[in-house]
Write a structure and sequence with these properties.
Layout (H helix, E strand, L loop, with lengths): L13 E5 L2 H4 L12 H5 L18 H15 L3 E5 L2 H4 L9 H16 L3 E7 L5 H7 L6 H17 L5 E6 L1 H9 L12 H25 L4 E7 L3 E3 L4 H14 L1 H9 L4 H10 L9 H9 L5 E4 L4 E5 L7 E4 L10 E5 L3 E3 L16 H15 L3 E5 L16 H19 L4 E7 L18 E3 L12 E3 L1 H11 L6
Parallel strand pairs: 1-2, 1-13, 2-3, 3-4, 4-5, 5-7, 6-8, 7-12, 12-13
Antiparallel strand pairs: 8-11, 9-10, 10-11, 14-15
Length: 482
């Protein structure tokens, strides 16, 4: 749709930024915290860039007051952060750790002191290692009860102050990388049957947590965040269009339909049943998923890129794809499922150094698709540019990041004009942080942090980048001055 005049962003729009506990906090074994699966996984040789770990990360655990003060000076309206499960329940279940609970009390209160809305992610991938040791974590149905117990502890402790909750972050990523690509814990390759069962357990954990929150705080806003990369068919050939439908059912709607409708896409389930890998349901699961879906308040979207889809013949590409974790352009591998689809590079779009397409209009496209299919409000819980930032004369001139964010915000404003109900826009990320497999070379933040892959490097000094001051003006003008 195109309009002569824009209505702009809502007056109560939440301009924010985001982080994840493992990527920023550090203090990996302090104040009662025990290891998460990531604390163990990063110690396996070859798993991360230059063997980097989150042991110290950017030391947000000790420097959160400075970080929140910088957020306040920028005028940030909301800060999305995750809670480390193994700080709250060091063994995943059993005894709760009061020092862990107190840290997040302090962080939440520090945000509120500056009128920054805390937006809490319950789970951002850092499963307690103890649960992996006890029963293989997400692979066992027992994870559902332990997760809901953990989530309910958070709701009871913080629900008087936290009104925005994201239950799971990028379920499609942590399960796909964990059980199909072997890139995340537990590092399994092409274990399709377990992969789909793990996802079902995660869906049940999400659903039961939504119901637990609404029982305690009916007015709280809740959803989960999905890593959505909208798909474009490469041509108007019917086989390319059908390949795109197949891709979206298996790679996007498989998750979003469960969050919004409480059911799996019918065609996707028929396909999984034909392969013998469809998830097992326990009695009552279908009803619980549907009830939770009726209480979800928004669709969380982590948006970075789009993809192009082409029909893949039976003798075609057979690959799960492979991410570029070096920052050397052109090293990502093509994904493909013979007889269904393949994912070639889009020649119409530029890419980052990590081979992610840069497609601002894709953000509007994502919002339109979600609005049309689910009619839910949307929280953009992540959007940002990872780049090689250079410190020059004590400053970081990241005009490329400003351009990236400006173009995406312009498209998001058009989505608002289109009738999409966008509640918040959280950039990834606020400070530089550990980029999981990519170390500290891939920087996303508005605030530069002085450190690199060497665990003992740098002063951890915070230095606002040019983009920090630019976003400050964006927030002041509610997106009118870009």
């Amino acid at each position: 749709m195109y309009f002569k005049e824009s209505t702009g962003f809502p007056k109560d729009f939440l301009w924010g930024s985001a982080s994840a506990a493992y990527q920023v906090e550090g203090a990996w074994a302090e104040d009662g915290k025990k290891p998460s699966v990531w604390d163990k996984f990063v110690r396996i040789p070859g798993k991360t860039f230059k063997a980097t770990t989150g042991d110290k990360a950017v030391d947000h655990y000790h420097m959160y007051k400075e970080d929140v003060r910088l957020m306040a000076e920028m005028g940030l309206k909301t800060y999305r952060f995750s809670i480390a499960w193994s700080r709250i329940y060091p063994d995943g279940n059993g005894q709760v750790n009061e020092k862990g609970l107190q840290f997040y009390d302090d962080l939440i209160n520090e945000c509120l002191k500056y009128n920054i809305v805390p937006m809490v992610t319950v789970y951002h991938w850092d499963l307690p290692q103890a649960l992996e040791d006890q029963y293989h974590g997400w692979e066992d149905r027992r994870i559902v009860d332990d997760f809901v117990n953990y989530a309910t502890t958070l709701f009871k402790r913080y629900g008087d102050r936290v009104k925005h909750w994201i239950i799971l972050n990028e379920q499609n990523v942590f399960t796909g990388h964990g059980w199909m690509l072997a890139k995340h814990p537990p590092g399994k390759f092409k274990d399709m049957k377990t992969y789909y069962q793990v996802n079902h357990h995660a869906f049940m954990a999400h659903a039961k947590s939504v119901l637990a929150l609404k029982e305690l705080y009916p007015d709280a806003l809740v959803g989960s965040s999905f890593a959505y990369g909208p798909a474009y068919a490469v041509s108007d050939k019917p086989e390319d269009q059908m390949a795109c439908v197949d891709y979206e059912d298996l790679k996007s709607y498989y998750w979003m339909d469960v969050y919004a409708y409480g059911r799996y896409p019918r065609s996707a389930m028929k396909y999984l049943e034909s392969l013998g890998v469809a998830p097992h349901f326990e009695e009552g699961d279908a009803e619980i998923l549907k009830e939770a879906a009726s209480k979800v308040d928004f669709m969380g979207v982590n948006y970075y890129k789009t993809c192009s889809i082409e029909y893949n013949p039976l003798d075609g590409v057979d690959s799960l794809g492979g991410e570029n974790n070096t920052g050397k352009k052109g090293t990502a591998e093509m994904e493909g499922v013979p007889g269904m689809y393949k994912v070639p590079a889009n020649k119409n779009l530029p890419t980052t150094d990590w081979d992610w397409t840069i497609d601002p209009m894709g953000l509007r496209f994502a919002c339109r698709k979600i609005t049309s299919r689910y009619d839910l409000p949307i929280v953009i819980s992540e959007n940002g540019l990872g780049a090689f930032d250079k410190l020059e004369d004590g400053k970081i001139h990241d005009s490329y990041r400003i351009e990236y964010l400006r173009n995406h915000i312009e498209e998001l404003k058009k989505a608002c004009d289109d009738g999409c109900r966008i509640l918040a826009y959280c950039t990834w990320s606020y400070t530089d942080l550990l980029s999981w497999l990519n170390g500290y070379q891939k920087r996303y933040g508005f605030v530069y942090v002085d450190r690199d892959e060497d665990e003992n490097s740098g002063t951890l000094k915070r230095i606002p980048k040019d983009s920090y001051y630019w976003y400050k003006k964006v927030i002041e003008t509610n997106g009118e001055e870009l």
